[in-house]
Design brief:
The structure is a single chain. With about 350 residues, this protein is mainly beta. It is about 0% helix and about 40% strand. The chain has strands spanning about 10-20, 20-30, 35-40, 45-50, 60, 80, 90, 95, 100, 110, 125-130, 135-145, 155-165, 165-175, 180, 185, 190, 200-205, 205-210, 225, 235-240, 255-260, 265-270, 275-280, 285-290, 295-300, 305, 310-315, 330, 340-350. The strands form eight sheets. A nine-stranded antiparallel beta sheet has the order 11-12-13-14-30-24-23-18-21, with no helix packed on it. A hairpin with a 5-residue loop joins strand 4 (about 45-50) and strand 5 (about 60).
């Protein structure tokens, strides 16, 4: 039976937890067929994402915490909106219009994921909406001038739309009153299967090249062809075949892939459940991170998260772009907003339950 459209506006409810002066809220967004998303106003965190498997049984496919207050000090950015600048900025500084901008150094001497109080730790205003065949929430925040050292007052709007077709559409828009740099992404860790790890998942990324990095995970500036490397994911490959052993998590993937201009940037699937995630984006790269440094973290339902427990597929601009003149520019100026879209589309692999 084809599910009928769910015309309910998302429900927003208090959680009885405060973050300073702000009350933590959760928005529950439902779509037909057992698809449901729970979003926190704290960081725009996707707290739960229930997706049906090939048997029609829905289960949560994103990692995180049962206690919403745990996201206040989360070191892994589980499920949140990352900004002002996703990924790394070398030496926490960059040139802009003839001067040097210095931002927070929160990863040794480098900048990572927006600084000490990045967007994943801010409480956003949350506004529900319903449209034909879709419903969701729009999240808004203001990042003041020199927030974490970044120039310009930045007005940010991120819209999460859930469709009847089980798509989760993320639309980013940011405007500034002074030249600045912006790189926004969504940092959910996905596990589409029943196992505590993603080694049995299959992944394809539509990229002919990736960005090599230094031991500190900083891009060298080179774009290296994937031919003959472990990063050749142009055809689906088992993650278990390319990940290091759990006791050597640095051997996992933590790299940006230079996307070709095709329909599907990345496709992730789990054979045991039949779930398939297809990522489409207007941004130039997908950063694939296989939770290499998640160690003994207290996760949902009593789980202890270990390396390779999930995978992030972070559609974004290249890391350290402000210091790399050959990379696509992340400079945003008054009158020219940052406006990008990423879609996470969920489905079921072809076949029948007897094939599982």
């Amino acid at each position: 039976m084809t599910p009928t459209t769910d015309e309910r506006e998302p429900e927003i409810a208090p959680l009885g937890v405060r973050a300073g002066d702000d009350e933590l809220l959760v928005a529950t967004i439902r779509a037909p067929g057992g698809f449901r998303m729970s979003v926190l106003n704290l960081g725009g965190v996707v707290w739960r994402l229930d997706v049906p498997d090939r048997y029609g049984v829905s289960a949560d496919v994103v990692l995180g915490y049962d206690d919403p207050a745990a996201y206040l000090t989360d070191p892994f950015c589980f499920g949140g909106i990352v900004g002002r600048f996703a990924n790394r900025i070398t030496k926490a500084s960059f040139p802009l219009d003839g001067r040097t901008v210095r931002v927070t150094a929160n990863a040794g001497e480098h900048h990572l994921h927006g600084g000490e109080q990045g967007f994943h730790r801010k409480c956003w205003a949350m506004h529900p909406f319903v449209r034909p065949g879709a419903r969701g929430v729009t999240l808004r925040t203001t990042s003041p001038h020199l927030d974490e050292g970044f120039p310009g007052t930045l007005q940010v709007e991120v819209t999460y739309t859930v469709t009847d077709a089980h798509e989760w559409i993320v639309e980013y828009r940011a405007t500034t009153d002074a030249p600045t740099v912006v790189n926004l992404t969504q940092h959910s860790y996905f596990n589409l299967g029943r196992s505590a790890h993603i080694r049995d998942h299959s992944l394809r990324i539509d990229a002919d090249a990736y960005l090599p990095v230094t031991p500190e995970q900083l891009p060298t500036g080179e774009r290296r062809l994937v031919d003959g490397t472990r990063y050749d994911l142009r055809s689906p490959r088992s993650l278990g075949a390319i990940l290091g052993a759990p006791e050597h998590p640095a051997e996992g993937v933590d790299h940006s892939f230079v996307l070709r201009a095709n329909e599907a940037a990345a496709v992730l699937s789990a054979a045991d459940t039949g779930r398939v995630l297809t990522v489409r984006t207007t941004m130039p790269s997908v950063h694939c991170y296989t939770a290499n440094y998640v160690r003994d973290a207290a996760g949902k339902g009593g789980a202890r998260y270990a390396p390779h427990c999930g995978v992030c597929l972070e559609a974004q601009y290249f890391p350290d772009s402000p210091n790399q003149p050959t990379f696509p520019s992340t400079v945003v100026r008054p009158g020219t907003p940052f406006a990008e879209t990423t879609t996470f589309a969920f489905g079921i692999a072809p076949g029948t339950p007897d094939d599982a």
